[in-house]
What does this fold into?
Amino acid sequence: MSQSPGTHPHTIRAAFRGTLGKFALDAGFSAPAKGVTALFGPSGCGKTTVLRCIAGLNRLADGVCDIDGDVWQDRDGTFLPTHRRPLGYVFQEASLFPHLTVRKNLLFGAPRGDAGKNNPVAFDEVTDLLGVTPLLDRSPRNLSGGERQRVAIGRALLSQPKLLLMDEPLSALDRVTKSEILPFLERLRDRLSLPIVYITHDIAEVERLADQVVLMEKGRVLAAGPLADLQSDPSLPLATARDAAVTLDTTVEAYDRAYGLLTLTVRGSRFFVPATPSPVGERRRIRIISTDVSLTRAPPGPSSILNLSPGRIVSAKPIDSNEIVAVVALGSDGEGARVLSRLTRKSWDELRLGVDVAVFAQVKAVALGPGRGE
It folds into this structure.
């Protein structure tokens, strides 16, 4: 791979501008070369086109693709063909070879001989992470849709890529199968250092998997950054949607066996969540919906709501003539993690709320994501 003084180690940098048929693309973003970066937006906004440009399947003259310091494309004419880019590509449909066993499908793209001696991703590790070890001697014809897709992901991983590209890998699966495969994708994110660029139009997948988000619309990037930052930005559509929520990565502080409650800490606050035991220090992801957060100016009296935090309103935006979304920074100093509160204009006016006003946020419900190993 070529490197130049302008390369960006530990960063994915992609920018493509041009026309493909009648579709105009002018999209660029940078993201850490680790974790999951989700390209999110409605169908037809250009997500797959960007992914195909990263893969070298589409070529625009005005394009840059720099993966962790390796230049795959640059405006000076540098352009690595797809077969020379160390990437894995997982499509919507698992295209397995029907005449080969699962084991042979998995090994089909794996480096052989000396090239495969020091593979960073081992066969046994991949089959264990994806739960396909019991399937190795089967024919793909005898697999469920979810099993087939897990094998396709495993095949992509065993090609020893520097980047994994996933184009709506769950969209062809039913709801139950999606919920079965999501934990496997979380395990990949948590246990492998491989960066993943993941396309979806399903916000639930973004909230479960993504560390970074690239928000797209009509061939352009509206915003790019950490998931929680984009969720809590009232100028973006994520914060004003009816199902708007903020996803926070928390740390397990304690477990109360008498009441079955986990204590989770986040910058500026802590949350008590009904759950099974979890090791102290483990990271757990939570989701807080804007309609589950109410605000008060004074500390409330005894209540069935366990999660109460002081905070400060840092921004707000009218959703329509009757409702407002407020962004609250948790903690008595108003410097902590941010949550959204969707409230009526009547409540806003009667409580005399506004930017920089100190409040107490009552969180009626906290959705807890699975822990590692669940």
Q: What stands out?
A: The longest strand covers residues 245-256. The radius of gyration is 23 Å. The longest helix spans residues 175-191. The mean pLDDT is 93.
